[in-house]
From TrEMBL:
It catalyses: hydrogen sulfide + 3 NADP(+) + 3 H2O = sulfite + 3 NADPH + 4 H(+). It comes from Marinilabilia salmonicolor. NADP(+) binds at S515, R516, K521, I522, Y523, V524, Q525, D557. Binds 1 FAD per subunit. Binds 1 FMN per subunit. Its EC number is 1.8.1.2. This is assimilatory sulfite reductase (NADPH). GO terms for cellular component: cytosol. FMN binds at S116, T117, H118, G119, L152, G153, D154, K155, S156, Y157, K158, H159, F160, C161. Residues 63-201 form the Flavodoxin-like domain. It is an enzyme of class 1 (oxidoreductase). It comes from the Bacteria. Keywords: Amino-acid biosynthesis, Cysteine biosynthesis, Electron transport, FAD, Flavoprotein, FMN, NADP, Oxidoreductase, Transport. SUPFAM superfamilies: Ferredoxin reductase-like, C-terminal NADP-linked domain (SSF52343), Flavoproteins (SSF52218), Riboflavin synthase domain-like (SSF63380). Residues 231-445 form the FAD-binding FR-type domain.
Length: 595
């Protein structure tokens, strides 16, 4: 690279050359977008006539792409759109929402927003300030802005895609115009996201979208590297399957070790394993019996032309109910009682919990065709399991910790679509379809900071990966585990491993909460309260707090407890304590993986 015309000094040029050596195409595209975004936000007032980028691409259409994500899905979609935009006549800038200055909105011409909703209608941490700005009183008039929002969510939650809805409504209120209407994506987001992307590009009058290859070519060897995903999962072999709860436990938890040999699949501690689910055959048969259908009819589905039975077994969600499903059922059947249920928000929320599609058919019977029945169901999403291994430690394997979902309701046993299939129908040497779901927002600190890990039940899984990673890299930094389950004797998951890590110094401290071993129930939040002085001291010394487990129960209680610890030990008002916790989240020193 010649430096004759470069405005950089020698040291800067050398750093740039080191950075750009051996970049892949995708990395180069991302770097290009990052530099453009940095220039746009840092030198917004620069004279466009003196900007080299403006001179070289004077006719390019400006496009800013912002994403807000908790698990990385919105970022993945945003990167795909940015990559396509750079091959067309767009001056595309890609930024995470926490890298963007919301006051620059008034200078934007074309804006795409891809954002998820976390928890009960809350924005992901990186989108919090942007969401607060556009929905607040300080939002400017944006009559010159063209925009579109792609919202990601899960229909099993009440406030489906709420963050995206909030942002869309706020921008419309500010006078902005939509390039394409709001699209709300369920967990099987790709088809809707692809359609939204196509509409956006068409309405922006771009060149036709180029097809992205499903394989990447290694130019040095000519070998193809296959990319595995939920659309193209890897068929993996189960190497080991062990029940890790005792016989007297009322839970069945299994440790599975899965081969990745010769797959080229890579993952990091904090990532999840996507497993293609299969519904319980008995449930499918009972649904068909209730519908008085033998399931043999061949139907057009999102998975192609297949039999009704195969569609229910492999391709549609039937083990849980969502608000959307019940609304569609009411619309298709015109059932008065279902319509009445929908109008009572509290009763509907209660009904959704613990019921499945067969309950709906039995309790609100109505004649419905197989075609219409499939139309009310959503595609069966893969199930995500926090990976419980470090690839540095186990090589071409991946481990997961699976709790079998099994309960009885109204005299009928209910079985989880994926956990039940893995527990009851899959053994060593059997094959399962898998892929890696990246989670860039649940990572070990690169600087070796102290870590506090809080989890209950299978929420302990990623912490096993964390400590394996630290052992594999020889790092004995300060580590503290809080683990909760029902009984010490039967439910202490990976007990001997934690004892080994304690002895060797890779795990510094462990606090245990077994709720059923005494009269009063003790949970992890109670253990946190007892250790609040030390916990706050760790946080003050750059500690990172991790939370993994059930979103609706444990996670909320733990976060509330942490907030009270900050308030009390920091001598803060409630508002200042909230600000402290918010700062931890922004600095990635409070990370959660909840479900």
């Amino acid at each position: 690279m010649s430096n004759q015309l470069s405005p950089l000094n020698g040291a800067q040029l050398k750093s740039l050359q080191n950075l750009t050596t051996n970049l892949t195409k995708e990395q180069a595209i991302w770097l290009n977008g990052y530099i453009q975004g940095f220039s746009a936000s840092t030198f917004a007032s620069a004279d466009p006539e003196t900007s080299p980028a403006t001179v070289e691409r004077r006719t390019a259409t400006p496009l800013t792409i912002l994403y807000g994500t908790h698990t990385g899905r919105s970022e993945k979609i945003a990167n795909e759109i940015h990559s396509e935009a750079t091959t067309k006549n767009f001056e595309s800038t890609l930024l995470a929402m926490d890298q963007y200055k919301p006051r620059n909105l008034k200078n934007e011409k074309n804006l795409l927003i891809i954002v998820s909703t976390h928890g009960e209608g809350e924005p992901p941490v990186m989108a919090d300030d942007f969401h607060e700005f556009v929905t607040g009183k300080r939002a400017p008039k944006l009559t010159g802005l063209n925009f579109s929002v792609l919202a990601l969510g899960d229909k099993s939650y009440k406030h489906f895609c709420q963050t995206g809805i909030d942002i869309q409504q706020a921008l419309l209120k500010a006078g902005a115009s939509e390039i394409a209407g709001l699209v709300k994506c369920d967990v099987d987001y790709q088809p809707d996201a692809d359609q939204w992307k196509q509409e956006v590009f068409n309405n922006l009058k771009s060149e036709p979208v180029e097809e992205l290859p499903t394989t990447s070519q290694d130019k040095s060897t000519g070998n193809e590297t296959i990319t595995y995903s939920r659309k193209n999962p890897y068929e993996a072999t189960i190497l080991d399957k062990v029940r890790i709860t005792g016989r007297e436990s009322d839970k069945e938890v299994y440790h599975l070790e899965i081969s990745l040999e010769n797959s080229g699949i890579k993952y990091e501690p904090g990532d999840s394993l996507g497993v293609i689910a299969q519904n319980p055959g008995t449930l499918v048969d009972e649904i068909l019996s209730t519908l008085k259908d033998d399931g043999s009819e061949s139907l057009d589905t999102h998975a192609g032309k297949i039999s009704f039975r195969e569609a229910l077994l492999h391709h549609y969600e039937i083990t849980i109910l969502t608000r959307d499903l019940i609304e569609k059922y009411a619309e298709k059947t015109n059932h008065k009682e279902v319509k009445k249920l929908i109008k009572d928000d509290q009763k509907l929320e209660t009904y959704l919990y613990g019921h499945d599609v067969l309950d709906l058919l039995n309790e609100f019977p109505s004649k419905i065709t197989a075609v219409d029945f499939l139309k009310i169901l959503r595609p069966l999403p893969p199930r995500l399991y926090s990976i419980s291994s470090s690839q540095e430690a186990v090589g071409e394997e991946v481990h997961i910790t699976v709790s079998k979902v099994l309960y009885e309701n109204k005299g009928r046993q209910r079985l989880g679509a994926c956990s039940g299939h893995l527990a009851e129908h899959k053994e060593v040497d059997d094959q399962i379809l898998i892929y890696i779901e990246k989670n860039p927002n649940f990572r070990l600190p690169a600087n070796g900071s102290p870590i506090i890990m809080v989890g209950a039940g299978t929420g302990i899984a990623p912490y096993r990966a964390f400590i394996q990673q630290r052992e594999a890299t020889g790092h004995k930094g300060k580590t503290w585990l809080f683990f909760g389950e029902r009984r010490f004797s039967s439910d202490f998951l990976y007990q001997t491993e934690w004892q080994k890590y304690l002895k060797e110094g890779y795990l510094g401290k462990i606090d245990l909460a077994f709720s059923r071993d005494q009269k009063e129930k003790i949970y992890v939040q109670h253990k946190l309260q007892k250790q609040q002085k030390k916990i706050f001291k760790w946080l003050e010394n750059d500690g990172v707090f991790y939370l993994c487990g059930d979103m609706k129960k444990m996670a909320k209680d733990v976060e509330a407890t942490l907030l009270s610890i900050i308030e009390k030990q920091g001598g803060m008002t409630p508002e200042r304590a909230k600000g402290y916790l918010k700062k931890l989240k922004k600095e990635r020193r409070f990370q959660s993986d909840v479900y």
